[in-house]
Design a protein that fits this description.
single chain, alpha+beta, HIT family, subunit A, 3 helices, globular, binds adenosine monophosphate
Amino acid sequence: MNDCIFCKIVKGEIPCKKIYEDGDMLAFHDVNPQAPVHFLIIPKRHIAGIMELEAADSGLVGGMLYKAQELAKELGCGERGARFVVNCKEDGGQTVPHLHIHVLGGRGLSWPPG
Ligand code: AMP
């Protein structure tokens, strides 16, 4: 999608601090980190959000989740854990309409969210 910031990152038109990439997904550090570890993992194909998923995307999303926990461990969150978050649309606080999983760790996080 031409005006999507994360599609531009996928295409290399906007720089990112890349952590991992394969044919289907890209992981990079969040530009405005909310915890010592804060990265995003996105599908390379434009999917607006979690509620736009189709049944055929389940393998892709499962792979993203699996890779997210692998990377979280590599970044030192294996023992104390991390938070895996998908914000969705207005009430969910989504600001970038391209599906992404946030991974936050390296400090204790409160619950419930505000
Ligand atoms: P959300 O509010 O769930 O849609 O999260 C969007 C996230 O994308 C925010 O945490 C932003 O800080 C992050 N973000 C926006 N632009 C960039 C960028 N160019 N590189 C890395 N992270 C970004």
